[in-house]
Structure formats: C-alpha cells, structure tokens
Amino acid sequence: MKCRNVKTETLGKLVTASRNFLVLVAFFSLPLAAVAATPHHITIALSNTSEAVNWYEEHMDCQTITGRDNAVSCGTAEIEFLLGATVGGSQGTGVDHIGFSVTDLDAKMNELENVGVQGSGVRLLRFDDGSLVRDIPGLFKIAFIFDPWGTKIELVQDADLLGFHHIHLNSVDPVASLDWYRQVFGGEAGSLKGMLDGVQFGDIWLLATEYTDGRPGITQGRAIDHIGFEVADLDEATVQMNRLAVEFQQEPIVPDNARSSAKQAFIRGPDGVLIAVVEPGWAGVEEEVFIADTSESTELYVPPQTPWGEPDLQGIWTADAAHGIPLQRGIDVAGTDELTPEEAAARRERGTLNSIWGYDREWRDTTLGYVKSAPSTQVAMVIEPSNGQLPETTAAYKEVVANRAPRIPPQRARTPVDLGTYVRCITRGPVGMMMPSIYNNGLQIIQSPGNVAIQKEMIHETRIISTEPREGFGEGLKTWLGDSHGRWEGNTLVVEVRNLNGRTSYLGSSEEMKLTQRFTRTGPNTMEYQFTVDDPAVWTEPWTGMFTFVKDDSQYELVEYACHEGNYGMTNTLSAARAIDAREAEAAAND
C-alpha cells in the first residue's frame, strides 16, 4: 500500500464519512487505547438456534456452553445465535466473514465436499479455476464456505493459531478502520505472516479489506448482526468512549431476559458495524419462543359467505407453517400427540437444511424469519390409519416393483424424459403440488358462482374446479392433474380427482388413483386441508393426510414461478452425465 499523507487523508475521509468521527484527531495523540478489551463473541441472526448449535459443533469443532442453548464456544471466542428476521448474508457488510484455522485444510474441504449441501447445509465456494483450496505463498492455504444462514466463513491452515482465527472487515478506509479499533479497544497493530495488516487481540486477528463498491452494508439485520468485545469495567469504558465521541446505540443496561447480571451496551463502529460491549460474565439473552395458538374454540367456526351464498375460501394462504411435518409418524414420536414449539421449530429447520441444494438464504422462505405463522406442532400428516403410517402395499404391487426396470438415475440420464416431471418443470401432480416445501408455499383461491380456482405458487399450476352438479367422470381424456369435480358439503369444499394419466405418480400411485381433497376454514386465518388417496392397485386400504394453511393476505404475494427461465439444471444434469460417461469410457480404455 502506498503511504501518502496517511493522517491527513484518513482523517479527511473519516470526517466526511460520518459525524461520529469528528474528534478522532485525538486518537493519533493518545499513547494508549481508551479501554483494554478482548473479542468476546460474534452474533449470527438466523431462524433456529438449536440447529445452528449443532451445525457449528459438527463442522467448526465448537463446543456447547453449559446452561446455554443459543451459543457455542469456539476456543477464545463465542458465537451467539439471535432469532430474528434478516435481509441477507454477511458478505458485503461491514463484517464480511469470520475465519477458522484447521490443521489440514485439504482434508477438511474434502470432508465438507463429501457431506454436500444436503443434510448439513454446507455450501462451498469455488475459486475461478474450480478449486476449493488456494495456497497463498508466504501466508497459508485458504478456502471459503457458507453456513446455512448466509454467514461467510474463511477456513485457513495456520498452525500457529488453530480454532477461531479472525474477523474480516470491509472498509472504505482499512487503515483508519483498524486504527479506530486499536484506539477504542486496544490490541496490537501487526502484520499476519508479514502479509496482512491488522490488529491482534491475543489469538484473534482483526483484518480489513478495502471496499470499493460504495459503502459496505450495515451489519444489523444481516447474517452477522454484530460483534462483541468484553471490557473489565463497562461504566469506565463508557466514560472513555464518550470522551472520544463514540456513538452509542444503547447505553449500558442489563437487557430483559438476560441470563446474567452483566451489562451490555451497543456502539456503532466504522462502516456500519454494530458492536456490543459487555461486562465479564455476559451470557447472552434468553430467546422467546414463538408459540402458535393451539387453543380450540368451543364454538364451531362459521366462515364468511360469498355474495352468492357459498363459504368464502378466497385469499392467499401459505403452507409455511406445515413445512417440516413428515408424511408418516416416526418411531421417535410413537407415543407423542404433539411436539413442543421448540421441537417443531427445530424440525422445520432440519427440513430446510435437508433440501437447500446450496441455495442462498434469500431463496428459502422460512430461513429469513419473515414467516408470521409458528411452525406446526403436528406430529405427522397421515391421520388415517390412526397409527400415522401408510397402509401395506398389495401383493400385486410388490410383484410389479420387484420386476420393474430400475429407474435411470440423473447421472445416467440420456434425454430429458429420463428425468422427473418436477425437474422438467411440468408438474408435481395433484397430491405433490399441495405439499409444503422450503419456498413457494403460496396458495391462492378465487371463487365465482359455480367455480373455484386454486392456484399453487410452485410451478404456477392453476386448477379451475366446477362446483356445478355433473354426472360421472369422462373416461376419454386423462391429464396430468386429472379431472376435478367439486361440491359443497356444509362449509367444506370437497374435490374429487380422477382420470389421471399415470405420469404424476405419488409414492407409486397408479393412474387408477382416486384423490379426494377437502378444504375447510377452521378460523379467520386457518384452513384445514385433508387429502384421501384411494388406489387399490397399490395400497390395501385408502389413507388420509391433513395439514393447515394459514391466511396471509397482508404480506404474501404469489409471484411468477419462471421455472424454465435461467434454469440450468437440465443442461447441467445432462452434460454432467455425459462427462461421467466419457470419464468411465476413458478409464475402461486404459485398463
């Protein structure tokens, strides 16, 4: 870095950037820092704390903290988890990422690559040449991953400092920013391996990179919501910081629901970084769990009526609350009627992590924390048979399955028709289209005399269902979604679906399947959905599932699901299959 008139230029930038630094000229004449502090914690905002604890234990070798369920200890620093809505990941904010050091980075990245994005939700960042690890001569090997909630993490191989390694800032003026932290919190100015200028606090480095795309985003409301420093005497530190015109977002207090009597204050650092300053003994804040209202009214709910006298089901509904409910009752909940709110929240989060496919958090509705409905505590969808399990399949069906040609896996697909209708953006079928998933759970219902239109957000499918009396089901035309007849039974819309073309099978169902759907408003903002599958060619008896949609006209809007536009999945799947073919052919030729 060229060293011009650093003092003049740095002060000039700081003065024009923010009124908070008008008196920072005094910093350069101070022989010592205002207070002696140590990095204490990183606070990550996300949608579920228990799953975050598990993730950082499993992949970052952090440890649980006795008596706390929302934090882990990662060597000399803690990571706290904060429940709350966020607007994106850490990348591009004042705290771009955090760093951990491991003994063998190649082995670690190989381990994470084998885990993949499903299950644990580990997303890897590849360099331009496709590699996961880059060796920087004179420094160390580096790699990048993201946790499932958008926190960017740098993994390095620095044998001198293993475990939690560094906090990496974005700054319009890295020199001034690092000097601000040194003057306010202490630490020693130094150079990591003689290559990266920073401030060292014991075993933790504070590094900064120049941000050239305007100004970094503020941290509050992003994945890394804030960072925390511990001081021995917060009251004295407050006096010293006030003398230096440090901006306080919150004066020292013991927060509501605090786990200890230690005080906490918030200040604003350079480049929009929110910083907590805490006393010794700080143990975080007890989170309040969002509990769904499960109380049942003693009176039967009477839904509003349309002008023509039918029950009014119209509006925008979502199945976000039902995401995570398994179809069948698991062995682990054999004697359980209902989950606790904490168990339900963790289950929904696991459902998200098991199906994120490497997506950024901005694509995953329930991860952002904007879903207003609490996760359903329902144990399983299947309510008949009463044991919550699907009935036995027929002997004839078992024989068909035993003699069926193996399904062509994606890595062997020759043409698009070897792939499923969901991948090909055709349909999820009349049963699957209603099922909740990690995103696009919207359902819009519009009624007119004699007709009900039901539009599902995923793959933008719309069904126009006549409720006028009709005689029988036509036998000549079989379609992807079948032939739907509707009728009203009291306040319940009953829809019977037949004449399927057999190409939208659900769990092996045949084209002879008869599907009966029931939509019933159970409250001003709740609608029970039941579906009965009757397929004697597959199951020995009919079975019924159920879950609840929640009305959300105020904030939810069905947007176009442009499944094909920009969808590289088909091209990538087929090209990858051909690459595997070529690799295996070359290996065979060399044998």
UniProtKB/TrEMBL annotation:
Q: Which domain of life is it from?
A: Bacteria
Which UniProt keywords are listed?
Signal
Where is the secretion signal located?
1-36
Ranges for domain VOC come to 38-158, 163-280
Record keyword Signal present: yes
Recorded hits in InterPro entries, A to Z, give: Glyas_Bleomycin-R_OHBP_Dase (IPR029068), Glyas_Fos-R_dOase_dom (IPR004360), VOC_core (IPR037523)
Q: Which Pfam families match?
A: Glyoxalase
CDD domains named in the record: VOC
Q: What is this protein called?
A: VOC domain-containing protein
Species of origin reads OM182 bacterium MED-G28
